[in-house]
Amino acid sequence: MTNNTSSGSSSIKTYREAINEALRQEMRRDPTVIVMGEEVSGGAGCAGQDDAYGGVFGVTKGLMPEFGRERVIDTPISESAIIGAASGAANNGLRPVAELMFFDFIGVCFDQIFNQAAKFRYMFGGKARTPMVIRGTVGAGWRAGAQHSSMLHPVVTHTPGLKVVMPSNAYDAKGLMIQAIRDDDPVLFLEHKIMYDLKCEVPDDPYTIPFGEAAFPRQGNDVTIVAMSNMVTRAIEAADLLAKEGIHCDVIDPRTVSPLDEESILESVEVTGRLVVVDEAHERCSLAADISSIVAEKAFSSLRAPIRKVTAPHAPVPFSPVLEDAYVPSVDRIVSAVRDVLGG
Amino acid sequence: MTNNTSSGSSSIKTYREAINEALRQEMRRDPTVIVMGEEVSGGAGCAGQDDAYGGVFGVTKGLMPEFGRERVIDTPISESAIIGAASGAANNGLRPVAELMFFDFIGVCFDQIFNQAAKFRYMFGGKARTPMVIRGTVGAGWRAGAQHSSMLHPVVTHTPGLKVVMPSNAYDAKGLMIQAIRDDDPVLFLEHKIMYDLKCEVPDDPYTIPFGEAAFPRQGNDVTIVAMSNMVTRAIEAADLLAKEGIHCDVIDPRTVSPLDEESILESVEVTGRLVVVDEAHERCSLAADISSIVAEKAFSSLRAPIRKVTAPHAPVPFSPVLEDAYVPSVDRIVSAVRDVLGG
Amino acid sequence: MPYQTEFLLRVYRTMKTIRVFEERCIKEFEGGNIPGFVHASNGQEAVAVAACIDLTDRDIIGSTHRGHGHCIAKGCDVIGMMKEIMGKATGLCKGKGGSMHIADFDKGMIGANAIVGGGPPLCNGAALGAKTRGTRDIALSFSGDGSANQGTVLEALNFAVVLKLPHVFMFENNGYGEGTGADYALGCSSLAERNGAFGMPSEYVDGLDFFATYEACQRAIERARNGEGPSAIEAETVRFDGHFIGDPQLYRGENEIQNAKDTRDCIKIFRERVTGESWLKDEEMDRIDAEVSDLIDTAVEEGLAAPNPDPATDLMADVYCSY
Amino acid sequence: MPYQTEFLLRVYRTMKTIRVFEERCIKEFEGGNIPGFVHASNGQEAVAVAACIDLTDRDIIGSTHRGHGHCIAKGCDVIGMMKEIMGKATGLCKGKGGSMHIADFDKGMIGANAIVGGGPPLCNGAALGAKTRGTRDIALSFSGDGSANQGTVLEALNFAVVLKLPHVFMFENNGYGEGTGADYALGCSSLAERNGAFGMPSEYVDGLDFFATYEACQRAIERARNGEGPSAIEAETVRFDGHFIGDPQLYRGENEIQNAKDTRDCIKIFRERVTGESWLKDEEMDRIDAEVSDLIDTAVEEGLAAPNPDPATDLMADVYCSY
Ligand SMILES: Cc1ncc(C[n+]2csc(CCOP(=O)(O)OP(=O)(O)O)c2C)c(N)n1
Ligand SMILES: Cc1ncc(C[n+]2csc(CCOP(=O)(O)OP(=O)(O)O)c2C)c(N)n1
Ligand SMILES: [Mg+2]
Ligand SMILES: [Mg+2]
Asked: What span, in angstroms and rounded, lies between the C-alpha atoms of D313 and D94?
C-alpha cells in the first residue's frame, strides 16, 4: 500500500466531507475540473437560495458558491445528456465529474457509459482520452426500494474501459477521488449512501491513493475475507467478533474493483487457504463470483475449503425495513460463512 | 432432459428458420402474441415492398404478410419506447416479442429492462405479470466492431426477475422460443448472429423446452466443459478433437443461464473433478466466473484441479478481422484449457 | 347545472382524501412511522382527480414518484396504501414497493415509478394492449415538468403518435423538479407547444381549476377512446410540500408556499366555485371532510397495527411467476 | 461573385472525394476487401461539406454510422480512412474501429457512432468543453431522420438550450431509417419545427443545394461562435445506395434511385449552378475529378497493401490509458 499522503495536518471528517474536500481541492488546483448533475448545486431558476442542495446528499455543497455555475452545473433530468456531455467535454479539454444522483439511474444512460466513454480509447486506436469521473450513490439501507438501492458494480466491472472505485471509508474516499479526477480514463466512483456520515481521520492536504492497491483493515492467518464498500464495515465487525474466539481473519478491501488487486487476494489465500467474499450485489455474475473464480483458478492448490460467497439474494431490494435488513449481507452471515469454511 | 417434443414430422432447418417457425406457430395459436421492433417487417411508409427486411437478419420474415401490421409492428428507432411498450402491453393482455436488432442497444433501454420489467412482480407484491420476450442478437464474428458485437448476458443474468435464454442450435432455439413466449416472466432470448445459418433436424410441430434444463451434446468422464450459445459449437469441436486422443469431455450446454441448471453441472464435476467454462463475454463478472464460483462453493471437494475459464479478454470487440478472430475464444484455447486442468 | 351533484361530491371527496392522506403522510413520516423517500402531492389534487375520475378499472394509469394522489384518484384503497407506505405485509404491494413503487393492477394503476420518465413508455404499452385487443380502454401517464426532459418521455411522445395509441400524456407542471425551476430546466418557451410539435393535440390548462382540467382530460380521453390517437396536456399546478418529505426547500422564495396555500389552493378554488355557483353546499362538503378525516385516521391506525412481512417467507417470494 | 474560386474548388473537390470514396467502398466491399457493416453516404455530400467546410480542426464534429462523408469533409486523410475501413494496422484507428467507429481526434472528428443517437449528447459535451475553456470553438453533430426519434437526441436538444451550448444540430433527412420511411417514423409534420419547439433557432433547407445548406450552416455556426447557443438544421437529402452496402432495398419505389441520381444529385446540381453562374469552369472540375480518382485509387492500393494489426501486441493495447 503506497499511499501518497501528505505530511500535514489532519482531522476527523465524514465520508461526505472527504469527498467534498477532494472535489474542492481539485477544482482549485485545476480549472478544467467541473462538476455537473441534477441538483449538484440546486436552486437554478428558483426564487430562493442557490446551492439549495449541494447534491441531494450534500456532497457537492459549497462548490457552486466558490466556483460558480459555469463549473458547477445543474442540469435537466436527462442522464444520457449528462453523461454524454461529461465524456464529450472530457474529449475536449475538461475533467468533468458527473453525478448520477442514484447509480440506479444508469439504466437511462448506460449506452453513454458502456458503449461510448468506455470504448472510445480502444475503438479509436488509442487516440481518445476520456478523463471523467461518474459519481453515483449505491446500495441498500435507506428504505428506498427496488429502484434506488442497487449496487450494480458488477455491471460496470464487467465492462472493459471503465475503472470502478468503491471506497469504504472517508480516508480512502478522499484519496481515491483525487486519483480518479487525475486519472485519464473514465472512472466510476461508487459512494454507498449508508456511509456518508461515517468518520475517520483524514489529512487536510490533497493526496492520492493509487488504483489497484487493496487495503488491509484486519490481518490474520485463518480465513481471508474480501469485502468492498459498505460491506467492509461488516466484514471488520465480523472479524473482530471472531478474533475474540481466536479466529483471525485477513480482511481485504480492494478499494478499486477494476483494476482489482488480485495479487493481494491470492497472497492472502495462499496463507489462509480459506476465502469468504462479501458483496452487497446480487449473487449471479457478481464481484463475489468474480473474485471466487479468480482464486479457484489461480490459488486452487492453496484452497483448503470451499469458497463461500455472502451476497444479496437473487431478488430486487425490498422496501419494507424488515425485508431490507434481511436482504443485505449481515455480520451474522459473514461470521457463519467464516465458520463454514473453517469446517465449523 | 425432458423435452416436450411432438411425435410428428421434422426437417432440416436453420437457426433462423427455427425461430421464425416458433414465432409463426405461436402467433397462430395465440392472438395476444405480437412482434415489434425496428424493421421487423420493414418498408413502413415506403413506396416499395412491405416486409422488405423481416428483421435485418430475416428472422421475422413473412410474419407481417400473415399477421398484418397490427401484430407485426415496425417502430421508430426508440428502444426505450419499444421495450416499455412491450412490457406495458404485457401488463395489459398481450404477449409481446420485442426485438433489439443488436443486443448492444440495451444501453439505451436498460432501465426499461432491469429497473422496470424485471422488478414489477416483486415490487408490486406479486400482482404483476409481464409475459414478454426480448429478442436480441449477440456476439462477435460479423466484423461489426465494438458497438455491435457484445454478449452482455452477464449483465442480464445478474438481474433478478429476468430469465436469460441462449440457444446454441436450431432445435433448442425453436423449443426455447415457444417456451419463452408462453412463459409469464420477462425473458431475454439471445440469438448469436453467427449461428443463423446453422442447421439441424427440427420438428415441424410446436414443442417446448423447459427452462433450467441443460443439454449434453457430448458425454465423458475426464473433464467437464460448460459452454453456451456460439461457444457450444467450439466446445464440441474441442471435445471431438480431444476424444481422438482418448480424453473424454462432458460438454454441458445450460441453454438457459437464468435459471441455470446448477445440478447437472455439479453432478458432472463430481464425476470429472475438472471444469473448463467457456464464455464469449469479457472475463470480469462473467457467466464463466459465475459458474466457476458455484462449483468452487458447492462441488469443491470433488475438484481435482483449478477451474479454468476461457473467455473473451477485458477489451472491447475489435473491428479488424485478425483481431476479432483472436478475441473470440477459440477451439485451440478450449483444448489447451482442458489439457491444463488435466495437468498437461 | 352542468355537473351531477353526485359527481361533484365524488370529486370533492377524492381531492380531499388526497389532501388529508398526504398531510397525514407528512406527519407520520416526521413521527418515524413511514420510512424511505416519500413525495407528497398535496396542492396538486385537482389534476389527479380530473385525469382519473372518469376512468374505469380497465383503463390504465402510469404514475410517478409522486403517486399517492394518482392512486387515490384511480380508486386504490387508502388503507392498503397506508399499509404499503408503512412497509406492511398487508399493504397493496405486501410492503415490497412502498411509496415510490406503489401499484394496484386490479384498479388499473400499473405503478408509481421511482425512475423519472419510466412511466410513459409503459403506458404506451398499456395503450397498445388495449388497442390490439380491440377495446375502447385507454392509458394515461403522468409526468412532471422535470421528467418532460427525460429522453424516454420525449421518445414516447413520438412513438405514441406513430402507432396512434390511445394514450393521454398528462404533464403536471408544478414549477419544480426537485430544487430546480421548470423555467430553467425546460429550454422551450411552452411545454404544451413542445409536446404538440410531436404531432398530437396538446393543450395548456390551469391545473388548479378542476373544471378546466377535467374538460381538457375529457377531450383527450374521448379522442383516445375513439381511436384518434394520443394527446398531451400540460396542467400548471403547485406543490405545497417539499420535493420529498423533509426537504428544507431553501430554493423556494420567501412566503412562496404560504402565498400558494392562500391563493393557489385547488381545493379552496373548487369549493368557492361550487358554492358560488350553488352547485354544492358547504355543509355537504364539511360532512365529507369529517368522513375523510376518519378514514385517514383509520388508515393510519390499521397501518400501524398491520404486521410486517416475514423475511423467511417473503424475501424471496414473487421474484418470478416461476423459476 | 459571392464566393472565392478557391473555396468553390475546395467544395467541389471535397464533395467529389466523398462520392468517389463511397462508390469505391461499395466496389471494394463487394469484392470482399472491406469487412463488416458499411453505410455509404453517396448522394448526401452537399450536407457534409456545407456543414464542415468552414470548421477548424479545433471545432468538433460527432458523426453517425454513415460517417465517411463527414470525415472527409472535416479533413480526415482518405488513405488513413480506407486503411481503417479495411481493418489495417495503419488505419486512422489502427483497424480497431472500422467504418462504423472511425474517428480522428486530431481533426476534431470525435467519432462515427454505431449507436443511433449516440453522438449528439457527446457533442453537447464537446461544446461545453469549448465554452468552459472560453474559446470560440463549436461542436456540430450529425443525426438522421431516424435517429431524430431516439430519446438521447431529443433530450440533448433541450440540454443544449438550457446550457446555451455552442452546438449545431444537423439533421440529414434522407427519407429513410434503414427500410422505414421518415414519414412513418416521424410523427410530426415537420422535423425542423419539432426541433425548434425545443427553444432553439431551427430551419429546414434543401440539402441538395450546397449553397442554401452552407448559408444555413453559416448562420448557425456564427450564432454558436458568438455565444448565442445552439441551433438546428433539417437538411433534406437523398441516399443513393442502400442502408448498408449490400442492402437489396426492396422498400424503395420503382426507379426511385435512378430518378434520384438523374434529378437529385447534389454534385450535378452544384456543377450546374457554378457553371451556369460562370463561377467555375467544367475543365477545372474535370481536372479535380481526375485527381480525386487517382487519390482514391491510391487509397485502395495502399489500403490493400497495408499490414494487418498483430493480435499479440494490438489486441490488448489501448483499452485504458493506464491500468
Ligand atoms: C432517472 C431519474 N433521474 C433522477 C431522479 C431523481 N428525481 C426524482 S424526482 C425528480 C424531480 C422530478 O421532477 P418532476 O418531473 O417535475 O416531478 P415532481 O417532483 O415535480 O412531481 C428527480 C430529479 C430519478 N428518480 N430518476
Ligand atoms: C440504438 C440503435 N438502434 C438501432 C440501430 C440500427 N440502425 C443503424 S442505422 C439505423 C437507421 C438510422 O436512420 P437515420 O438516422 O435516418 O440515418 P441514415 O441511416 O438514414 O443515415 C438503424 C435503425 C442502431 N445502430 N442503434
Ligand atoms: Mg415538477
Ligand atoms: Mg435517414
From this structure: 12
| B 241-260 residues inside an 8 A Cβ radius of A | 258, 260
Number of residues in chain B: 344
Over the stretch D254-312, which tens digit does the pLDDT of each residue have?
999 999 999 999 999 999 999 999 999 999 999 999 999 999 999 999 999 999 999 99
Determine the CATH number of domain A10-203: 3.40.50.970
Q: Are A339 and A306 in contact (CB under 8 A)?
A: no
Q: Out of 3.40.50.2000, 1.10.3720.10, 3.30.70.20, 3.40.50.920, which CATH number does the structure's domain B215-341 have?
A: 3.40.50.920
Average pLDDT over every residue of B248-253:
98
Q: Do A85 and D110 touch (CB under 8 A)?
A: no
Contact assignment for D199 to C193 by CB distance below 8 Å: no
Distance CA C221, CA C199 (A): 17
Closest by alpha carbon to D28, among D16, D17, D40? Answer: D40
Q: Let me know if A148 is a catalytic residue.
A: yes
Q: Which of C85, C163, C167, C316 to mutate to test the interface with B (most CBs of B within 10 A)?
A: C163
What string of DSSP letters covers B46-104?
Answer: -SS-SSSSSSTTSTTTTHHHHH-TTTEEE--S-HHHHHHHHHHHHTTT-EEEEEESSGG
Question: CATH code at C22?
Answer: 3.40.50.970
Q: Is residue C322, in this structure, part of any structural domain at all?
A: no
Q: Is the ipTM of this complex over 0.95?
A: yes
Which residues contact residue C271 at a Cβ distance below 8 angstroms, ignoring those fewer than 6 apart?
A: C12, C280, C282, C285
Taking contacts as CB-CB distances below 8 angstroms, the residues of chain A near B260 are 284
Question: Which three-class secondary structure state does DSSP give residue C51?
Answer: helix
Computed from CA positions of residues B196, B201, B205, B206, in that sequence, does the dihedral angle turn out positive or negative? Answer: negative
Q: Does C310 touch chain B (CB under 8 A)?
A: no
Query: Which chain D residues are Cβ-neighbours of B329 within 8 angstroms?
Result: none
CA distance linking residue A279 with residue A259, whole number of Å: 17
Inside any domain, residue C113: yes
Same fold, B10-203 and B215-341: yes
Break chain B into its structural domains and give their ranges: 10-203, 215-341
* 8 A C-beta contact, residue D320 and residue A163: yes
- For A224, the 3-state DSSP assignment is strand
Residue C173 Cα to ligand 3 midpoint, Å, equals 5
User: Is C145 a member of any domain?
Assistant: yes
Q: How far apart are CA A193 and CA A102, in angstroms?
A: 9
In short, whether C100's Cβ falls inside 6 Å of ligand 1 is no
Q: A50 vs chain D: nearest CA distance in angstroms?
A: 17
- Would you write out chain D's pLDDT as a tens digit for each of its 323 residues? 799 999 999 999 999 999 999 999 999 999 999 999 999 999 999 999 999 999 999 999 999 999 999 999 999 999 999 999 999 999 999 999 999 999 999 999 999 999 999 999 999 999 999 999 999 999 999 999 999 999 999 999 999 999 999 999 999 999 999 999 999 999 999 999 999 999 999 999 999 999 999 999 999 999 999 999 999 999 999 999 999 999 999 999 999 999 999 999 999 999 999 999 999 999 999 999 999 999 999 999 999 999 999 999 999 999 999 99
pLDDT in tens, C253-274: 999 999 999 999 999 999 999 9
Amino acid at C320: Y
Residues on chain A touching D60 (C-beta within 8 angstroms): 88, 91-92
